[in-house]
Design goal:
The complex is a heterotrimer of chains A (about 200), B (about 260) and C (about 375). Chain A is built from seven helices and seven strands. The termini of chain A are far apart. Chain B has about 260 residues and is of the alpha/beta class. Chain B has one domain: Rossmann fold (3-Layer(aba) Sandwich). Chain C folds into two domains: about 190 residues, Thiamin diphosphate (ThDP)-binding fold, Pyr/PP domains (Rossmann fold, 3-Layer(aba) Sandwich); about 110 residues, Rossmann fold, CATH 3.40.50. The chains are: A alpha/beta (about 200), B alpha/beta (about 260), C alpha/beta (about 375). The interface between B and C is large, with 33 and 38 residues. Strand 2 of chain B pairs parallel with strand 9 of chain C, so a sheet runs across the interface.
Amino acid sequence: MKETMIIAGFGGQGVLSMGKILAYSAIMQDFEVTWMPSYGPEMRGGTANVTVIVSDKKISSPIANQYDTVIVLNQQSMDKFESKVRPGGVLIYDTNGIVTPPTRTDIEIYTIDATEESARMGQAKMFNTMILGGYLKIKPIVKLENVMAGLKKSLPERAWKFLPQNEAAILHGAEIIKRRQLSTTVFPPPMWLGLVE
Amino acid sequence: MAEVEIREENKVHARPRLITDTVMHYCPGCSHGTVHNLIAEVIDEMGLEDKAVGISPVGCAVFAYNYIDVDWVEAAHGRACAVATAVKRLHPNNMVFTYQGDGDLTAIGAGETIHAAARGENIVTIFINNSIYGMTGGQMSPTTLLGMRTATTPAGRDAALNGFPYKIMDMLTHLDGATYLTRQSVHTPAAVRKCKKAISKAFENAMAGNGYSMVEVVASCNSGWKLSPVEANRWMEENVMPNYVMGDVKCSTLPK
Amino acid sequence: MAEKDVRLMKGNEVIAHAAVHCGCDGYFGYPITPQSEVMETLMELRPWESTGMVVLQAESEIASINMVYGGAATGKKIMTSSSSPGVSLMSEGLSYIAACELPCLVVNCQRGGPGLGTIQPSQGDYMQACKGGGHGDYHLIVLAPSSVQEMYDFVGLSFDIAFKHRNPVMLLADGAIGQMMEKVVFSEQKPRLTDEEVAEQQKAWAATGKGQRGKSNVVTSLYLNPEELEGLNNRLQEKYNRIKAEEARWEEFMCDDAEYVLVAFGSSARICSAVVEQAREEGIKLGLMRPITLWPFPEKPLADMAARGVKGFMSVEMNAGQMVEDVRLAVEGKAAVEHYGRTGGVIFTPDEVLEALKNNLIK
């Protein structure tokens, strides 16, 4: 088993910590893992991304040619990473803020309205765990119990009281992620924008 | 010259026990030898021989380690206070002092000096201020007086061209970590006695863990100034000393 | 064990943990991206309360390295860490430390240059680390970790080598390894030596205060008599030859039947091991030689490979071609030697390297 994935969005969206939770979850299941962030000024307000590789063997390169899964959380990241999904791979994105949706037809595309859902539930901070839940529905590489153990390990003790909310968000994310219908890709961008809004 | 036997009751000065046999390279009339003697005496009298670690500079006193028989580390130019910081923090029971001239301390080493003082490192700096780079042949230093001729100010230091001199000790008075700052000289027997007391007090201050101490010795450099030793001392009294407040500049304890 | 003691950490963070665990006595540093987590982690760990290790944030890299010099002059285990521009500032101090034959550890988590450059990863300081940086005929012993676990393991190893030869050691990492998180296994806590043990073990040279020693120790690199300074240099060169004979370390990956060999260190070596896997799938007999010590450079394995008929070598570095010169010297014209690199903080992908190999070497 080897899963090479990247999560990309704005700094402050919890991109790096989402990757961290996944990485911790994976080591709870005895996998090898690398977590390679973009770092520096781009972390503050600009774009941020993290490559996470999970494998049952020793990981050679922490840098990938292409990704099995790409999770995109803003338009800039969509522009940059849509082409980096390997043929047959998975692209997951939050529709919020995406004005030019992906056009590739050789990959599986999923949407998850986590921004909207987490805001509606009054739990905007659960946004990233909700996305993670959606991802794990599509790529169940780690068991939920290990995700919870990984989450606990990646959070400071003072934040453990939020573990139940996080678990709920993960489960909810798994429910709301949906496969995007191919037909939608033929809409030109302005019209698509009108539809989601 | 035949050996002259000096009767004990006539003896006013002997070579301090911790001054080695090595022949000093300092010019006749230089203040360094006198200050070395004082340091050696104070270390001996305070029983610090086993605990003393000196940090020597780059400058005329670079070979201080050949003359005072304690452990020494020879620092890169200007970095003595950084070196001393580490030695003292790793060996808090040692008595750690730097010995630096005005080029080493106020020019290239101003940063290290100010930060060691600001942090309140429990070290002592013996600062020999003779207003000139002696070792490299008499160039202007930051403490060279306006109008003073040096190898790089042949027409005299001109503020417009060479900038103004500055007094680092006066700057250090504003730092909480600097608790004992005193300005001395060694050009008369009385001044030598006062200077020795000041060095002693500074070493006590460091050993008590009361922060940073500096003993500035306003000194002459007759070779660099192109004067005889006697003329140099007179010139110093008339021209240098009026520019400086002599005696203790600051005596305090570390803020709680 | 109820809960497994697995840790997921950044390379920079494990440097701090390793320092404490191996009984380091002092860390003096100055913040610079991408290695600031080293000192931040130490300040979180508060080792002065556990092992008695001194940690101090200095006012500059110049002060840091001179604090390292002072601390090392007292015979203790001292280290600093920085990134490329900061290491440039330390070069003078490193020359003094090497001249005084003081053991210490300097971690360089490299970033792209020249100048202020970038904070993104680079391997542009190979020459600086291996060929000098500072003035005079001296050498650092340079180790290049390629995983977070090696970042951890090499700290203790570096101190062992540094004290064995009384020579400064540099851990040449880069921003990628420093910022990357991987699994890491910690070693047991080694006790710090007591002041008495240090004074006794290093009594021949360390400036710990005369104590019971009876004679004073002076740490200096000033020799105004040319013959004396030449004597020091001859002694240093003898030591460097000994280090060359004893300390060269490397790792080979699928080199036994290789027709072509990539030479890469640090994070580049990780990428290149994936290139080897990809090439083998395509039927190309490719191997990887990873120097673990960059100085001394492991010349022998490369010379042996060239002698047994490897057709070509490609030195893959995140720079414009630095280690490739050492590869050429080792191969001595017996096989083709090419370089592939990216600069400016750009990290190459395995595909890119394989493509370059095909274009440059396998024609």
